[in-house]
């Protein structure tokens, strides 16, 4: 292989290329132009980083600046309810409210009894609103026996209405059951 390269180099003829007379001047001018050409200016965002640092420092200063906790005395207006009058009344109120909630949760609404249940629930809602107004009266006028008795009677009446509703729904269910049995026979 070395022989082949030597053979090919023997046959090589060098072409003489002559440069033009002012080739050196042209090359020098081109070089000057390239070297002294103004580069596009890069935008300097140093001011933006300084501004961000200032904003960061201010926000940290505001966040961690020690402030005196000045407590403004606030009058605590405690709302008086039946349960807050005495522990016995609290027990009574809880008993009736839990019983009312339990009775309502046990209602089974169907298409046949929907109207009856709605009527009773409207009455119970009215009694609940009356209970709220009696509680407001208790707060305005203070604790007195008449208001406390009215609150307890209100709770009792709501529970009685729910028990009566449950009884009527049971009777309606039994009536429907007996009618279905007579139709089958």
Structure, explained:
By secondary structure, the protein is an all-alpha fold. The protein contains seven helices and no strands. It has helices at 2-10, 23-35, 46-64, 82-85, 87-105, 114-141, 145-184. The longest helix has 40 residues, at 145-184. The mean pLDDT is 81.
Descriptive terms for the model:
185 residues, mainly alpha, 7 helices, elongated
Topology, please?
Layout: H1 2-10, H2 23-35, H3 46-64, H4 82-85, H5 87-105, H6 114-141, H7 145-184
Helix pairs in contact: 5-7, 6-7
- Give the rounded overall mean pLDDT: 81
- Tell me the β content: under 5%
End-to-end distance? 119 Å
Helix content: over 70%
Q: Characterize the biggest β-sheet.
A: none
H/I helix tally: 7
Order of helices and strands: HHHHHHH
Low-confidence stretches: none
Output the structural class.
mainly alpha
Structure summary, number of beta strands: 0
**Per the principal axes of the C-alpha atoms, what is the gross shape?**
elongated
């Amino acid at each position: 292989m070395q022989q082949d390269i030597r053979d090919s180099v023997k046959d090589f003829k060098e072409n003489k290329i002559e440069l033009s007379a002012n080739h050196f001047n042209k090359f020098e001018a081109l070089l000057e132009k390239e070297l002294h050409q103004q580069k596009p200016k890069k935008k300097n965002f140093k001011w933006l980083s300084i501004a961000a640092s200032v904003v960061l420092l201010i926000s940290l200063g505001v966040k961690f600046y020690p402030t005196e906790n000045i407590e403004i005395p606030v009058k605590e207006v405690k709302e008086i309810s039946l349960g807050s009058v005495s522990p016995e009344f609290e027990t009574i109120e809880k008993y009736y409210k839990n019983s009312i909630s339990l009775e309502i949760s046990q209602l089974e609404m169907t298409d046949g009894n929907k109207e009856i249940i709605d009527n009773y629930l409207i009455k119970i809602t009215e009694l609940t609103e009356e209970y709220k107004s009696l509680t407001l009266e208790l707060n305005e006028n203070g604790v007195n026996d008449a208001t406390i008795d009215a609150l307890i009677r209100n709770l009792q009446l709501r529970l009685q209405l729910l028990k009566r509703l449950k009884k009527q729904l049971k009777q309606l269910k039994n009536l429907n059951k007996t009618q279905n049995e007579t139709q089958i026979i």
